[in-house]
User: Fold this.
Amino acid sequence: MFAGTVAASIARALMEYAVSRGADREALARQSGIALQDVEDGDARLPLTKYVALMKAGQELANDPALALHFGEAIDLSEVSIMGLIGQAARTMKEAFDHCNRYARLVVDVDIGGAERFRLERNAGDLWLIDTRNDPNAFPELTEASFARAVSGNRRWFDRQFVKAVRFTHRAPTYRAEFDRIFRVPVTFGCEKNAMLLDETWFSEPIARQPRYAFGILMAHADALLESLDASTTVKGCVERALMPILHTGGASMGEIARQLGFSRKTLYRRLKDEGTTFEKVLEGLRHKLTLEYLGARKVSVSETAFLVGFSDVAAFSRAFKRWTGTNPRTLRGRPAAETCTHLSPTPRTRCKVK
Assistant:
């Protein structure tokens, strides 16, 4: 079963917003299971189940059943997420939308029905933005907050309304009037899809509220975070993480890694096969990647590198290196560091969540 996560920065923003609406901070932490130190690092990840519990606790303690709508209306995503900053640095809304799809998982990583969280779909000449999240009625507040944030944020940016209608799959709640106040367009409940009807001129609207230089920096950081998230949610990533501290021992066997991950050897084989790889390919790929990093930085010798990536002798390492690159490891080490250093992505901050 997919185990979703949410950025700690989003959970912290929701907690602070609920407090501003009258909720008690300690009671929020206690009822949600989110300790205050859990949200200090905004790039950290929290289980989606705890975020759901935080939303429910906030609704109760702030006496605001429409808390998700109000949260989406009030909070500027650029203040709580790198995805929002990237959106502000984009040239146009179309570019911002594309990057929103690319980095949506950095805000909340949920089970989706396609390759992208949001899909554009044309129907009878109209252009709809579809939220592809699976089982959305299990947590409709997520859709409410997302749509309210999109509409309210664009209204602040452009002082215009680019959404012409909104549809929700869940039934109309008791706070139905708040939807009319926030969206200011026809809102329909009990629909087949969560969707917003768009004015297509929205895509050509210029943004560029951040320098283009900042755009590149933000993208690099977001890519690193996304790679870290992938490493914590795929079996391949979990295997690599388990291999790292024991690689130099030479005892990095499939059986040992399966045991660490709580799998049988057969199950680990099957799960890796489902991801299109094998244990041997993951081990080989990690050794290759680390070798380029070590030799590229020119801080360790060839023999030390061989030891660090788990080879018992330099000759075996040299043969493997030639298989990977077609050249000798000493040749690579002699090049300038800028030509060879590959810079590994940061170690994931979250534990492996595959089951």
Observations:
- The CA atoms of residues 38 and 316 lie 45 Å apart.
